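ok new one. same drill as before - structure tokens go in, u give me an amino acid for every spot. 156 of them this time. try not to just spam alanines like last time pls lmao
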């Protein structure tokens, strides 16, 4: 996959976002191994914007690793300062499964009923309200009414 090309303004925004990040991938003296590439790919999928620390002292080798990772993983090279490399790749959209049968869960409320005579403790009642119910001001549970349809929509 070819690397992503970004404008200088986009690169600047990603550089600012990466400032507080810690390195999530470390590349040791063995260099760029398949395990490192796999781990970097997993980190890009999970985070999108990552920092990589290269432990080697050779600047040319670090630059080669930086470009090779960007090309192999289809990422955008953001920044290379010292032994830190910053890569960015847009995160894939997560598929959400929509459960049509799913209803809101029950909610618990505490209803206080004060006595008419002063000086007594209020009566505390714990009530569980389901998704299609509501709690009135007086502490009663009412079922929700079905939504009204217009006359024109009912005729269709």
């Amino acid at each position: 996959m070819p690397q992503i090309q970004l404008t200088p303004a986009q690169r600047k925004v990603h550089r600012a976002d990466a400032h507080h990040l810690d390195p999530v991938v470390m590349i040791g003296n063995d260099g760029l191994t398949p395990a490192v590439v796999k781990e970097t790919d997993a980190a890009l999928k999970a985070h999108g914007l990552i920092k990589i620390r290269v432990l080697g002292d050779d600047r040319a080798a670090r630059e080669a690793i930086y470009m090779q990772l960007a090309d192999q993983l289809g990422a955008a090279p953001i920044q290379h300062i010292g032994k830190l490399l910053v890569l960015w790749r847009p995160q894939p959209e997560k598929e959400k499964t929509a459960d049509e049968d799913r209803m809101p869960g029950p909610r618990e409320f505490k209803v206080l009923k004060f006595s008419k005579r002063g000086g007594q403790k209020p009566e505390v009642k714990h009530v569980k309200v389901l998704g299609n119910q509501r709690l009135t001001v007086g502490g009663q549970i009412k079922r929700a009414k079905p939504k009204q349809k217009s006359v024109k929509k009912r005729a269709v």
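The beta strands are 23-27, 49-54, 76-81, 84-88, 107-113, 123-129, 133-135, 141-143. and btw The radius of gyration is 29 Å.
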